């Protein structure tokens, strides 16, 4: 069984855009990534920050409703937001199996991640920007279930040019943590996925290269064939 995983990545404009993308994904794969950007850490802004307050987000957090298609799809949250520690409890109510925290947004990364690990409710992903020297942060990398490297320089946007620096980050992590799961998010497509797989990547967040096609089942299978 192939342990490598294609993960469709949704950058939702609003709740209805999220619902539409999840509906398209249902039946193709059981696992997706939902990107959440606050317009502060990134220039882009997504649900639930596009309309504040957002009645759909509030209903999910309060337990009145569940996430769209929650019975059919598991998901991870990629939190491109400032001070994610302050939103962690609310975001947990969305029911993710994994949250990905961007290292540069955390005030006390080790303390925060240790706290989450003790709770044992979700898997922990830790993302690093291309400008961060990962060799200086092996102590916190050791705590993460998945380390996410960015295939683009400007996060929060899809369809950008691939940043070759990601290969250096992957190698540095693999050399020290050969069994660590590594994800790449940003500019993962038919031109880059094979080289990323050969470099040791196991999780591939695919945005526009997946959702920008007509036949999602065929696209998903064609991408898997390259792993």
Please give a structural write-up.
This protein has an eight-stranded parallel β-barrel, surrounded by four helices. The model has no long low-confidence stretch (mean pLDDT 95). It has helices at residues 15-25, 55-62, 84-92, 109-119, 138-141, 166-176, 193-199, 208-211, 216-224; strands spanning 5-10, 31-37, 74-80, 98-102, 123-128, 146-150, 181-185, 203-206. It has 227 residues and is of the alpha/beta class. It has a single domain, classed as TIM Barrel. Helices cover 33% and strands 20% of the residues. It has nine helices and eight strands. Helix 1 (15-25) links the parallel strand 1 (5-10) and strand 2. The longest helix has 11 residues, at 15-25.
CATH architectural grouping: Alpha-Beta Barrel
Estimated structural class: alpha/beta
Q: Identify the CATH homologous superfamily.
A: Aldolase class I
Largest sheet: 8 strands, parallel, barrel
SSE series: EHEHEHEHEHEHEHEHH
Give a quick precis of the structure:
By secondary structure, this protein is α/β, with parallel strands linked by helices. 33% of the residues lie in helices and 20% in strands. It has nine helices and eight strands.
């Amino acid at each position: 069984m192939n342990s490598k995983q294609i993960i469709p990545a949704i950058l939702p404009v609003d709740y209805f855009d999220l619902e539409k993308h999840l509906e398209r994904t249902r039946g193709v794969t059981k696992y997706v990534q939902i990107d959440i950007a606050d317009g502060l850490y990134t220039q882009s802004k997504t649900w639930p920050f596009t309309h504040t307050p957002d009645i759909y987000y509030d209903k999910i957090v309060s337990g009145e409703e569940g996430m769209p298609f929650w019975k059919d799809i598991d998901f991870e949250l990629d939190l491109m937001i400032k001070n994610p520690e302050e939103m962690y409890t609310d975001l947990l109510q969305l029911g993710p199996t994994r949250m990905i925290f961007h290292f540069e947004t955390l005030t006390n990364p080790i303390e925060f991640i240790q706290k989450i690990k003790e709770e044992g409710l979700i898997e922990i992903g830790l993302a690093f920007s291309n400008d961060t020297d990962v060799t200086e942060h092996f102590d916190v990398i050791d705590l993460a279930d998945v380390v996410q490297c960015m295939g683009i320089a400007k996060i929060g946007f899809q369809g950008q040019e691939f940043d070759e620096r990601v290969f250096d980050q992957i190698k540095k992590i693999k050399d020290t943590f050969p069994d660590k799961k590594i994800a790449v998010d940003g500019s993962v497509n038919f031109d880059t996925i094979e080289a990323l797989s050969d470099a040791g990547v196991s999780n591939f967040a695919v945005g526009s290269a997946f959702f920008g096609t007509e036949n999602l089942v065929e696209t998903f299978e064609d991408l898997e064939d390259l792993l």
